[in-house]
Amino acid sequence: MFIISLSVFRYPMTYLTLVGSVLAMNLLAYLQSNLIEVTRPLSGYILPTIIGGVIGMLLSSNRVSCREKREEQKRLFIDIVQSLSIALDERDAYTYGHSSRVTDFSMALGKRAGLGKLELEMLELGSILHDIGKIGIPDTILNKPEALNSEEIEMIRQHPIKGERIIGLSNNNKIQMIVDCIRSHHERYDGSGYPDGLTGTDIPVLARIVAIADAFDTMTSRRVYRVKLTPQDAVAELLSCSGSQFDPQLTRQFSEVLRGEEFKMLLENESPECEPLLVPHP
């Protein structure tokens, strides 16, 4: 016995499939009548209509079931990825929740920048995983209270490459977007970043977005080696680095995001009393 979920009726394609199936069955019935030279009364099309409707519902139900299963699998994958990022953040009390906040800021900026559905999905995963390469860096370096020496700095600079290796290069365009985001989120717009010294729009757009979100959260979070900045001061710093460290257009759009109500929603867990920023355009 087939059980068809009412959820199939949420999708316009269900109705097109039903109409198409009914028309197809009635057309076959009509052609069959012509072939044997028999006139079929209108009542003779009731059974083909019912059969067409049943076939259409079965096709629609199967398609919707596959879609919902894919959505469930995708959500499960994202949940696993988020758990992995939380485990990474747990290694350092000063960066606890960093990946989650960077993801929130990145998604807000991605939507403001007009990214498509696929790009936003990959941005979510790329921002969650942007620091995954730090798994390979010793806690003694990540939690060091004083300034790092040159050797330790170089080790930290390897984390985008380590992250790329962890996720792995792929022929799948979707996965490669995530990998590129992880590898390039410390590139700078003027070419002075790492690991590849990319410039301008040669830096993947997802990486340019995560770079801004990452910098903003880092500046507004407490660190053992410095006092955190206010959101206003952090935005001013971002704007002053527009065109050198950050994409100018994306930096401007991020400042617009922070001037709106969405900023208050993003930070309400951290600071419920926070008011929307009044930030001048660069």
TrEMBL record:
Keywords: Hydrolase, Membrane, Transmembrane, Transmembrane helix. The chain crosses the membrane at residues 12-30, 42-60. InterPro entries: HD/PDEase_dom, HD_GYP_dom. Residues 73-270 form the HD-GYP domain. The keyword Transmembrane applies. The keyword Transport does not apply. One of its GO terms (molecular function) is hydrolase activity. CDD domains: HDc. This is Putative metal dependent phosphohydrolase. The lineage of its organism: Bacteria, Pseudomonadati, Thermodesulfobacteriota, Desulfuromonadia, Desulfuromonadales.
